[in-house]
Amino acid sequence: MAMTVNQKTSAWVIGASGFSGAELCRLINRHPYLQLSRAFASSVANAKPLAELYPELATVVNIDLEVWRDQNIDQDPLPELVFLALPHEASAKLAPYFLQAGVVVVDLSGAFRLKELNKYPEFYNFKHPSPEYLQDASYSLMELIGDAELNNLISVPGCYPTVSTLALAPLIRENLLCEQQVPVITATSGVSGAGRQATLNNSFCSVSLGAYAVLSHRHQPEIAQNLGREVIFTPQLGAFKRGILATCSARLGKGVTPAQVEQAFQQYYQNQTFIRLVATPPKIAQVENTPFCDIYWAVQGSNIVISAAIDNLLKGAASQALQAANHKFGWPQPSGVML
């Protein structure tokens, strides 16, 4: 049973100076069942009031960022819930300490998304320090987990896998796609997907629409794991701040009709608060700064194209993390998520 508003659950955000971490602070601050007790930056330079880093949060989130030090884990009292918005390897090292202390961990990195240990050196460039947790981590693509119970280690999907999986999963789960054909996904993300740290590649004067990490992006095995089949995934960087637009092309199985496609999407998503099945191809502008995934499809003969859009910092990160926490603690799904 969910607790009353006066019995708020204590939460920490570690990595609060990053884009996703700051969004989490904003959402938690308005959550009826959560109390943002402490927020941590990963560097001394960012140990300042959150509103100094993000002026739009002035008078919205009144919290000072502290420098994270490992000895913080030994402090009493610890929170009941911690959100890790950290680099992958940092989360992989830190999460076990909280879990051993009985804290629920919601991890926004890729540290626990993949079940195959050998994928981490190949796609994440590190040897996993906590492999014993990989099989126990609950992968929280919320619209597709149903009533499944989440473990104390909750792994939030990547932004590209979120939009791509939501676009294709109903068709694959209902066996509507041709088994011999590999779905092709082209997805364009805003530069906030690269994180807050400035580099030449994400500076305004350097960004131009183009593909990157072709056939080698770390989200490709995650998408394949989610769908249970291989995909061809090509990410692109667009000259805009936030949002992802994914175009998925596939071939329907023999005899599959448009009515069956419609039925599959309705069956999976008609009662999902944060999925909108739309009648025209979605634009990033209509999902920017929202927790929604908008999905459109078109069928021509045996060919199908699905177009889906999300805000990478919300549905692709912070708001989905909060959806998972709501599910774990038995709170209403929209709590703190609806803007």
Automatic annotation (TrEMBL):
Source superkingdom: Bacteria
The reactions it catalyses are: N-acetyl-L-glutamate 5-semialdehyde + phosphate + NADP(+) = N-acetyl-L-glutamyl 5-phosphate + NADPH + H(+)
Protein's pathway: Amino-acid biosynthesis; L-arginine biosynthesis; N(2)-acetyl-L-ornithine from L-glutamate: step 3/4
Q: Cite the active-site annotation.
A: 159
Q: Which GO terms describe its biological process?
A: L-arginine biosynthetic process
> Which controlled-vocabulary keywords does the entry list?
Amino-acid biosynthesis, Arginine biosynthesis, Cytoplasm, NADP, Oxidoreductase
> What is the uppermost EC class here?
oxidoreductase
**Ribosomal protein: present as a keyword of the record?**
no
Known EC number: 1.2.1.38
The record's section on Pfam families has: Semialdhyde_dh, Semialdhyde_dhC_1
Q: Where in the cell is it found?
A: Cytoplasm
InterPro entries given in the database record: AGPR (IPR050085), AGPR_AS (IPR023013), AGPR_dimerisation_dom (IPR058924), AGPR_type-1 (IPR000706), NAD(P)-bd_dom_sf (IPR036291), Semialdehyde_DH_NAD-bd (IPR000534)
Q: Name one GO cellular component term.
A: cytoplasm
Please state every residue range assigned to the domain named Semialdehyde dehydrogenase NAD-binding.
10-152
GO function terms (MF aspect): N-acetyl-gamma-glutamyl-phosphate reductase activity; NAD binding; NADP+ binding
Q: Which family does it belong to?
A: Belongs to the NAGSA dehydrogenase family. Type 1 subfamily.
Report the protein's function: Catalyzes the NADPH-dependent reduction of N-acetyl-5-glutamyl phosphate to yield N-acetyl-L-glutamate 5-semialdehyde.
**What PANTHER family has UniProt attached to this entry?**
N-ACETYL-GAMMA-GLUTAMYL-PHOSPHATE REDUCTASE, CHLOROPLASTIC-RELATED, N-ACETYL-GAMMA-GLUTAMYL-PHOSPHATE REDUCTASE, CHLOROPLASTIC-RELATED-RELATED
Q: What is this protein called?
A: N-acetyl-gamma-glutamyl-phosphate reductase
